[in-house]
Design brief:
The complex is a heterodimer of chains A (116) and B (319). Chain A has two helices and two strands. Chain A has 116 residues and is mainly α. The longest helix of chain A has 39 residues. In chain B, 29% of the residues lie in helices and 24% in strands. Chain B has eight helices and 16 strands. With 319 residues, chain B is α+β, with helices and mostly antiparallel strands. In chain B, strand 7 and strand 8 form a beta hairpin. An eight-stranded antiparallel sheet of chain B has the order 1-2-7-8-11-14-15-16, with helices on one face. In chain B, strands 3-6-5 form a three-stranded antiparallel sheet, with no helix packed on it. Chain B has a three-stranded mixed sheet with strand order 4-12-13, with no helix packed on it. Chain B has a single domain, classed as ApbE-like domains (T-fold, Roll), CATH 3.10.520. The chains are: A mainly alpha (116), B alpha+beta (319). Chains A and B meet through strand 1 and strand 2 of A and strand 2, helix 3, strand 7, strand 9 and helix 6 of B. Strand 2 of chain A pairs parallel with strand 9 of chain B.
């Protein structure tokens, strides 16, 4: 085999090794990015406080709150389909009235509320 | 001599496919308040009606997949609908447009035949509100291709809130705006509050109320499966669709009335309660939303400060 021929093979082998190295590092980088993205996308309501008992800290062993706060998905009857997954957790809660409705007996109503 | 207060001014007209009622505490303020209300309702109709080809929301559908700048009013209506979806975990979802059309509610309800021999298509679950892209701090929105919006419930409630605010400013007195049973009040309420009759049907509630309550601020809304019903094939369907399945809600409650700080919040809660079914009383109680729920069999449940029904007087013992 001529020296020039040998050099061509050597150059080709170096190229193949480089491609393999880049492929391995790219795969590792993609996996890392995927993990980082998954961590970033986990909503706050999926934290241990929302549905699991704490295993450390001052609340260790305590039962979780019965109802997560912050307008999370409502409870539903067993066997029914679940609501769509949430995408934000920043919305404020529904606002109750400043004063609840009062009974109005023995007076004529001024207007009506019902289905339409 | 005792001065007798003049009866409040009252105006009634058709709007947004239902009946609009305006009441002003000062009867002399009815005209300017009426103009303000009509202006708001006309703007909502031009902006949010899915039955008008020339509405802004119809134009938004023709630009699906592209970033589109929308008017401040449509941006507000979209934000109200998205917020309702977030706060109810998707029990109220603006992306139910295709599901509602598949049931045959594809034009103004007055034009829908009472009975259509064609069976309804299988339910189309809502694609999900989170697919809508709202650019924070701007009025740009991207409606993905294939998604059909229906802002019906929240847009009508938003109209009541906006109309009441505009009317109170124009009239300078207390006002009540009622859009087919979804109502908002603004300005100074009359002594004892606005007296609202509650029933299954907004059109008959005033004549034949199940209960009457007084409201001094905010809004009150009633959702019911007893209205806007029609026949498709061999089954009766109605307009309240479960976004999770695309089918009309199987009614646990026939009517739910909720009071809130605004009509949008009241309507969001009453619609969600109908969709949620048996778990609705606890859901409303946890959110401190005063409500009255009427089961399919007529049994009424009240929660979170809604006035308890007066106990029936015990019969006198026979001597």
């Amino acid at each position: 085999m001529s020296r020039a021929h040998t050099s061509r093979f050597a150059a080709r082998d170096r190229g193949v090794r480089r491609v393999r190295t880049v492929t391995v590092w790219s795969a590792a980088g993609s996996a890392g990015l995927a993990v980082a993205t998954a961590i970033a996308l986990v909503p706050g309501t999926a934290s241990p406080a929302s549905d699991r008992a704490a295993t450390s800290g001052p609340d260790a062993g305590a039962a979780p709150a019965a109802t997560p706060t912050g307008g999370t998905a409502p409870e539903r009857a067993p066997g029914t389909a679940g609501p769509h997954p949430r995408h934000t957790t920043s919305a404020p809660r529904l606002r109750p009235p400043t004063t609840p409705p009062a009974p109005a007996t023995n007076t004529a109503p001024q207007t009506g509320s019902g289905g339409s | 001599m005792t001065a007798v207060a003049a009866p409040p001014g009252r105006l009634r007209f058709s709007a947004l496919g239902t009946t609009a009622v305006l009441i002003t505490d000062d009867p002399a303020a009815l005209a300017p308040a009426g103009r303000a209300v009509r202006q708001v309702l006309s703007a909502i109709d031009r902006t949010c009606s899915r039955f008008r080809a020339d509405s802004e929301i119809s134009r938004l559908h023709t630009r699906a997949g592209r970033s589109t700048a929308v008017s401040p009013l449509l941006a507000e209506a979209l934000d109200a609908a998205i917020r309702a979806a977030e706060l109810t975990g998707g029990l109220v979802d603006p992306t139910v447009g295709a599901a509602i059309r598949a049931l045959g509610y594809d034009r103004d309800f007055a034009l829908i035949k009472g009975s259509d021999p064609e069976p309804a298509e299988p339910g189309i679950p809502a694609p999900g509100w989170w697919r809508l892209r709202r650019e924070p701090g701007s009025r740009r929105v991207v409606l993905p291709r294939g998604i059909s919006l229906d802002l019906g419930a929240t847009a009508k409630a938003l109209a009541a809130d906006l109309a009441a605010a505009a009317a109170a400013e124009a009239a300078g007195c207390g006002v009540l705006v009622n859009l087919g049973g979804d109502l908002a009040v603004a300005g100074r309420a009359p002594d004892g509050g606005w007296r609202i009759a509650i029933g299954d049907d907004h059109a008959t509630a005033e004549r034949d109320p199940a209960v009457t309550v007084a409201v001094a601020s905010g809004g009150l809304a009633t959702s019911s499966t007893t209205r806007r019903r029609w026949r498709r094939g061999d089954r009766v369907v109605h307009h309240l669709v479960d976004p999770r399945t695309g089918d009309p809600v199987v009614p646990v409650w026939r009517t739910v009335s909720v009071a809130a700080a605004s009509c949008v919040d009241a309507n969001t809660a009453s619609t969600a309660a109908i969709v949620l079914g048996a778990a609705a009383p606890d859901w409303l109680r946890e959110r401190a939303m005063p409500a009255r729920l009427v089961a399919a069999d007529g049994r009424a449940v009240t929660v979170a400060g809604w006035p308890e029904p007066e106990p029936e007087p015990e019969p006198e013992p026979i001597r």
